[in-house]
């Protein structure tokens, strides 16, 4: 076992090509595809365990229905029942981000949501789509969201510039928040795991290693919770932006 080498904790974020047939598929895209595949399976109800002979869903079905109901209530409470037609979109994005976060906890895997290009693309696409919905709803009156009511005439142009900048920063913050939280959490897990492995190779007593092992277990549970919370926060902030752009 002494032949094993300990690599940098940042190794898990190295992008490596997996399939190269005219179109290169690297490890990040591959695990994003895994997350999308799991999302499709849940959306199709394969994990729900429902059939004509069953009345009550299994645990997967109950959890899936609870998450769907939670997102639906957010849309109804903050935007309105009319915009519940976007529930499938928000529900799918929530699961895609959630499973992309959780897949990074699997040994020798990678986390698609640590890549800024991935998270910023998701936030940019969602918020630009919401702006388009707002424009189709209010036409040029949508520009009112960039001009607070009661603004003095001389401050109109500066305030519009600041509000546009704030909207751009909202796109950046959505992507950066998700990526940074995943990087720091998964990096901490890799450091603790490397510490445990180094102690094991050095024949450290199991009773001494029990403390970092317990800490590792706690942090894994915490990372699963953070993976869920970051997905929830992303959808919540997107829905709030939808509210701002569609309010009458």
Folded structure, characterized:
One of its GO terms (cellular component) is proton-transporting ATP synthase complex. The chain has 248 residues and is mainly α. It has one domain. It has helices spanning 27-44, 59-78, 87-103, 116-138, 156-201, 206-246, and strands at 17-21, 23-26. Strands 1-2 form a two-stranded antiparallel ribbon. A hairpin with a 1-residue loop joins strand 1 (17-21) and strand 2 (23-26). Helix 4 packs antiparallel against helix 5 and helix 5 (156-201) packs antiparallel against helix 6 (206-246).
Give a short summary of the structure.
With 248 residues, the protein is mostly helical. The protein has one domain (9-246). The protein is built from 6 helices and 2 strands; from the N terminus they run E-E-H-H-H-H-H-H.
From the structure above, extract its key features.
2 strands, two-stranded antiparallel sheet, mainly alpha, elongated, single chain, disordered N terminus, 248 residues, 67% helix
Draw up the topology in text.
Elements: E1 17-21, E2 23-26, H1 27-44, H2 59-78, H3 87-103, H4 116-138, H5 156-201, H6 206-246
Antiparallel strand pairs: 1-2
Overall mean confidence score, pLDDT: 79
Shape: elongated
Distance between the termini: 67 Å
- Helix percentage: 55-70%
- Sequence of secondary-structure elements: EEHHHHHH
In DSSP terms (H or I, runs of 4 or more residues), the helix count works out at 6
> Order of strands side by side in the largest beta sheet?
1-2
Q: What count of structural domains?
A: 1
- Work out the radius of gyration: 22 Å
Helix and strand content put the structural class at mainly alpha
Subcellular location: Mitochondrion inner membrane
Membrane topology: Multi-pass membrane protein
Family: Belongs to the ATPase A chain family.
Keywords: ATP synthesis, CF(0), Hydrogen ion transport, Hydrolase, Ion transport, Membrane, Mitochondrion, Transmembrane, Transmembrane helix, Transport
């Amino acid at each position: 076992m002494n032949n094993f080498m300990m690599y940098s904790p940042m190794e898990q974020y190295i992008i490596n090509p997996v399939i190269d047939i005219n179109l290169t598929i690297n490890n990040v895209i591959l695990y994003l595809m895994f997350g999308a595949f799991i999302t499709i399976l849940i959306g199709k109800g394969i994990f729900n365990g429902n059939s004509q002979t069953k009345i009550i869903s299994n645990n997967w079905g109950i959890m899936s229905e609870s998450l769907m109901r939670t997102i639906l209530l957010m849309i109804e409470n903050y935007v309105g029942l009319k915009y519940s037609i976007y529930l499938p979109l928000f529900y799918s994005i929530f699961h895609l981000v959630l499973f992309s976060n959780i897949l990074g906890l699997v040994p020798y895997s990678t986390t698609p949501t640590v890549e800024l290009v991935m998270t910023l693309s998701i936030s940019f696409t969602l918020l630009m789509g919401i702006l388009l919905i707002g424009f189709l709803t209010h036409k040029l009156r949508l520009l009112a969201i960039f001009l607070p009511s009661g603004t003095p005439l001389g401050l109109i142009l500066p305030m519009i510039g600041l509000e546009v900048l704030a909207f751009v920063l909202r796109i950046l913050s959505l992507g950066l928040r998700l990526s940074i939280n995943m990087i720091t959490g998964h990096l901490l897990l890799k450091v603790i795991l490397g510490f445990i492995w180094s102690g094991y190779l050095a024949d450290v007593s199991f009773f001494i290693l029990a403390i970092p092992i317990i800490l590792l277990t706690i942090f894994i549970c915490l990372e699963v919770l953070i993976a869920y919370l970051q997905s929830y926060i992303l959808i919540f902030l997107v829905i709030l932006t939808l509210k701002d752009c569609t309010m009458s």
